[in-house]
């Protein structure tokens, strides 16, 4: 534990440099954030229906591990984003992820094109369950299957 603290400790000079950084807030509707540019850039929404969102995504080098395969964290992020998108109601805040369970079945390499399909499994009150499937578009091979539970506000019934 002490080694970790020592490694993460900033020098006085580094601390001064960090304190001078200016990080502008991102407003809704403003330009994309670093997160969106890094993790989601290149995702294409192909179809949206009630209870279904279908996307395609070409695996970029920036999201691969040292072996050139789509990183498990990137897969988890895609499950989170696609699962949240399928239950999102325009005008309400995004739902909060409560639980995710991901089965990593195969791997995807740089430039593989993936089909990402997100379906609503069910809703009860403010709780929603989704199923997200990542599949290699060329081979049909399943890369990962995620079950994603979310909690959020409901649209007004008025």
Physical arrangement of strands within the biggest beta sheet? 1-2-4-5-6-3
- The portion of residues assigned to helices is 10-25%
- The secondary structure category is alpha+beta
Could you say which overall geometry the principal axes of the C-alpha atoms support?
A: globular
The beta-strand count equals 6
Poorly predicted ranges: none
Kindly provide the radius of gyration, computed on alpha-carbon positions and rounded to a whole number of angstroms. Answer: 19 Å
The arrangement of helices and strands along the chain is HHHEEHEEEE
Tell me the distance between the termini. Answer: 55 Å
Query: Which band does the percent of strand residues land in?
Result: 25-35%
Protein architecture, described:
The chain is of the alpha+beta class and 158 residues long. It has four helices and six strands. It has helices at residues 2-8, 12-19, 34-40, 72-87; strands spanning 44-49, 52-58, 96-104, 113-124, 127-136, 142-151. A six-stranded antiparallel beta sheet has the order 1-2-4-5-6-3, covered by helices on one side. Strand 4 (113-124) and strand 5 form a beta hairpin. The longest helix is centred in the middle third of the chain and has 16 residues, at 72-87. The chain is globular, with a radius of gyration of 19 Å. The mean pLDDT is 85.
């Amino acid at each position: 534990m002490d080694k970790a603290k020592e490694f993460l400790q900033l020098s006085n000079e580094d601390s001064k440099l960090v304190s001078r950084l200016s990080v502008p807030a991102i407003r809704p509707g403003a330009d994309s954030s670093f997160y969106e540019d890094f993790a989601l850039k290149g995702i294409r929404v192909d179809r949206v229906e009630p209870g279904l969102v279908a996307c395609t995504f070409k695996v970029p080098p920036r999201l691969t591990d040292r072996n050139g395969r789509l990183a498990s964290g990137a897969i988890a992020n895609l499950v989170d984003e696609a699962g949240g998108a399928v239950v999102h109601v325009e005008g309400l805040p995004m739902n909060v992820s409560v639980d995710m369970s991901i089965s990593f079945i195969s791997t995807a390499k740089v430039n593989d094109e993936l089909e990402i399909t997100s379906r609503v499994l069910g809703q009860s009150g403010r709780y929603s369950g989704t199923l997200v499937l990542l599949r290699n578009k060329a081979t049909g091979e399943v890369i990962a299957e995620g079950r994603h539970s979310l909690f959020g506000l409901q649209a007004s019934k008025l």
